[in-house]
């Protein structure tokens, strides 16, 4: 019995020894490379394993419910008969949108290397399948910005949601190539070449075959300041007007200035903004959605008559307490339309436009907001006769940011 037990023990020992010897010839398991927090650029960043690049993933999920009230001819005049709203479509509509952002940053010998991507996925009433928009996609190194980004002309784009009716300002994502110089104390200057054919706010709205090919990119410049009291900017653009069937082009331009002042003496996070812009042959830099307005019209003798427009916009945000806030924006737009002599009308497509919006937003927990908003647009449009029309939309928005 003892001999049997000894034999079993010896056999087990030999087997264990053989196994250990075999293990010595195998590579050791790779060490687990845990994700590490990157606190160099603020909250939410982490190191991509195996690299010195920091990544932040963000975005939102939004549900929006709208009710409409407008004059009978407003939708046709304003161009809202695109499935979102028209006199014969629903008076109640919905929009569901998801946003995804990727922000990567790496320190290099040439400065901070950054890339940023923002995509929108949207389903609107009357559309069975989602639309996908590459809203932004750009890279930065030092003062260089290349890709699809916010136009460097833009400063104030409103305080309220402006989900349907945008107030009078420039607010466009465009393909661009820009360089920014920091002058110290929060002051910077930027020069940007921007592709006028790529903006989400139409730089070249087309129905009557007025515009020709894109001959030159827009040249945008700004001087900006951002400090503890708030921010301000002056901006200008040279915008080429190229007619459809002629090489007789002409340069248009626009200029603007805006200031935002923080108001912590009223409540933390409060602010007020005022902005004005003026343009000739560059209407979309003054307002994003003016009615049926072109930068220019070609006359029978081949010359170009350019549209002149100016706008002023202002708004504020007030935090009632930690959970409730209100934002409002109002703007006025005046358009002296280019002459339509080519159609023997001998008058311009003049218009005046008022936009306003106000909301009340509740934030019950961090990252979640529930907001109710009313948006209003009034248009006084003159071409063959004078049309006065207005529209109003009320909406409820529920949004989770992450």
From TrEMBL:
GO cellular component: cell outer membrane; pore complex
Chief subcellular location: membrane
Signal peptide from the UniProt entry: 1-21
GO molecular function list: porin activity
Stored InterPro entries: Porin_alphabac
Similarity remark: Belongs to the alphaproteobacteria porin family.
Note on domains (UniProt): Consists of 16-stranded beta-barrel sheets, with large surface-exposed loops, that form a transmembrane pore at the center of each barrel. The pore is partially ocluded by a peptide loop that folds into the pore lumen.
Chain's role: Forms passive diffusion pores that allow small molecular weight hydrophilic materials across the outer membrane.
UniProt name for this protein: Porin
Origin species: Prosthecodimorpha hirschii
């Amino acid at each position: 019995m003892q001999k049997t037990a000894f034999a079993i023990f010896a056999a087990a020992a030999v087997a264990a020894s053989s196994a250990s010897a075999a293990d010595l010839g195998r590579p050791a398991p790779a060490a687990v490379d845990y994700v590490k927090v990157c606190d160099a650029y603020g909250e939410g960043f982490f190191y991509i394993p195996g690299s010195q690049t920091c990544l932040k993933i963000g975005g939102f999920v939004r549900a929006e419910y709208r009710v409409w009230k407008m004059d009978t001819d407003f939708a046709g005049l304003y161009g809202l008969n695109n499935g979102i709203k028209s006199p014969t479509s629903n008076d109640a509509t919905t929009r569901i949108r998801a946003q995804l952002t990727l922000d990567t940053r790496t320190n290099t010998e040439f400065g901070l290397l950054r890339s940023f991507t923002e995509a929108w996925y949207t389903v609107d009433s009357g559309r069975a399948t989602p639309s996908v928009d590459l809203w932004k996609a750009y890279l930065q190194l030092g003062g260089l910005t290349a890709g699809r980004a916010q136009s460097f002309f833009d400063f104030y784009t409103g305080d309220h949601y402006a989900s349907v009716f945008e107030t009078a300002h420039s607010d466009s994502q465009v393909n661009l190539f820009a360089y920014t110089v920091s002058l110290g104390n929060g002051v910077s200057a930027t020069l940007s070449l921007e592709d006028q054919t790529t903006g989400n706010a139409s730089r070249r709205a087309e129905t009557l075959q007025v515009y020709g090919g894109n001959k030159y990119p827009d040249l945008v410049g700004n001087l900006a300041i951002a400090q503890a009291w708030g921010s301000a900017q002056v901006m200008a653009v040279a915008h080429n007007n190229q007619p459809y069937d002629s090489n007789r082009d002409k340069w248009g331009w626009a200029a603007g200035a805006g200031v935002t002042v923080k108001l912590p003496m009223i409540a933390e996070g409060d602010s007020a903004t005022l902005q004005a812009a003026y343009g000739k042959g560059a209407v979309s830099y003054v307002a994003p959605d003016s009615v049926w307005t072109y930068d220019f019209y070609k006359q029978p003798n081949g010359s170009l008559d350019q549209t002149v427009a100016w706008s002023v916009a202002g708004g504020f945000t007030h935090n009632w307490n930690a959970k409730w806030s209100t934002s409002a924006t109002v703007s006025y737009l005046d358009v002296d339309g280019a002459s339509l002599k080519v159609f023997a009308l001998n008058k311009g497509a003049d218009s005046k436009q008022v936009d306003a919006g106000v909301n009340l937003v509740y934030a019950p927990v961090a990252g979640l907001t529930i907001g109710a908003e009313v948006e209003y647009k009034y248009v006084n449009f003159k071409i063959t006769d004078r049309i006065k029309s207005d529209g109003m939309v009320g909406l409820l928005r529920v949004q989770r940011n992450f």
